[in-house]
Specification:
single chain, alpha+beta, five-stranded mixed sheet
Length: 111
């Protein structure tokens, strides 16, 4: 499944998705400056078609992995938790913003 996201700086965005999120660069259409398109494959996660909500086996393991790759959670996100949180609807969730403020949610059933 493809989920398009807008980015102001393709190099910064690809670095975030590959280095921090652990995705693999599938292709990009060009290396010159200017608008371009690229595709990354996001590990073994399956999105459900919303903004970007990825079902994973263990949200805490994903969080630890992201932190190990240099992800630093923002602390100025208001009511949005900055670490894995058990939600009242039975899901443990983590929300991450990419460099262009696109939101990625990681979720697993509360154990």
């Amino acid at each position: 499944m493809a989920i398009p996201v807008h980015c102001a700086d393709i190099e910064r965005a690809l670095a975030f998705y590959t280095n921090i999120l652990g995705a693999t660069l599938e292709w990009r259409d060009r290396d010159e400056p200017g608008p371009c398109f690229a595709a990354v494959r996001s590990r073994d996660h399956a999105g459900d078609g919303t903004a970007m909500y990825l079902h994973v086996d263990d949200v805490d393991a994903v969080y630890d992995e992201l932190r190990g790759r240099g992800f630093v959670p923002r602390t100025d996100r208001g009511p949005v938790p900055v670490s894995p949180t058990d939600q009242t609807w039975g899901m443990r969730e983590l929300y991450v913003l990419d460099p262009d403020q696109n939101c990625l949610g990681f979720a697993a059933p509360v154990r």
